[in-house]
Amino acid sequence: MNYWKTVEAGDYKIYGKKFFGYYLNNRNKFRTYSLPYWNELNPNCIDEMLNMIPEMKDGLAKFGKIYNIALMILWDDKLQGLNAGVRTRMNVPIANYEGTRTSFYELTGEQYDNHTLSPGGSRLWPSEYKETLEPIASICITEPTILRIPEPHTVFCDTKQYPRVVASIAFDRDLTHYLET
Asked: Which of 22, 69, 94, 134 could disulfide-link 16, Cβ–Cβ 3.0 to 4.6 Å?
């Protein structure tokens, strides 16, 4: 099973910085209702944001319509979980991503069942799993990457340079087929 695949998605270094700037200037349009590091753009503001950042609109158009986009801003590496509701997301690196890795795990049934749910429905496992389990796959996201997010995963910030910032995007089309080729 492929857990990730890098893809060509336009000039992400330009639109990533512009999206982060949009966030800094429009925090009232983002919500963190689910988890403190998850800064989700109000769905009613997506078209407005894309019109302000045409490089992003053009670079991502081939993947479908964006229906959910968030900035994941990590100030530590305590994250461990899986996302709810979609099979894939595209993560686009923005800041302090060098020296970080997203790692995937295979859990036993008992380990899998030992989770809590975030307010947004994401599963969260005990942080000790991160120290005791061996990842089955890992990637340093240095370019746009499609991730199989229903699988248990976490982020390690080995260099301890924070905040680590990526845009995490869900499209109206399932992107799983990219992972199967």
From this structure: 94
The two tokens of residue 102 are 């997203």
Distance of alpha carbon 88 from alpha carbon 7, whole angstroms = 13
3-state SS record for the chain: CCCEEECCCCCHHHHHHHHHHHHHHCHHHEECCCCCCEEEECHHHHHHHHHHCHHHHHHHHHHCCEEEEEEEEECCCCCEEECCCCCEEEEEEEECCCCEEEEECCCCHHHHHCCEECCCCCEECCCHHHHHCCCCEEECCCCCEEEECCCCEEEEECCCCCCEEEEEEEECCCCHHHHCC
CA-closest candidate to residue 9, choices 85, 74, 64: 64
| Preceding peptide of 163 cis, ω within 30° | yes
- Residue from 55, 63, 60, 20 nearest 41 by CA: 20
CB atoms within 10 A of CB 23: 20
pTM summary value = 0.89
Give 133-178 pLDDT, tens digit per residue: 899 999 999 999 999 988 888 888 888 889 999 999 999 999 999 9
Q: Which residue has the tokens 């229906």?
A: 67
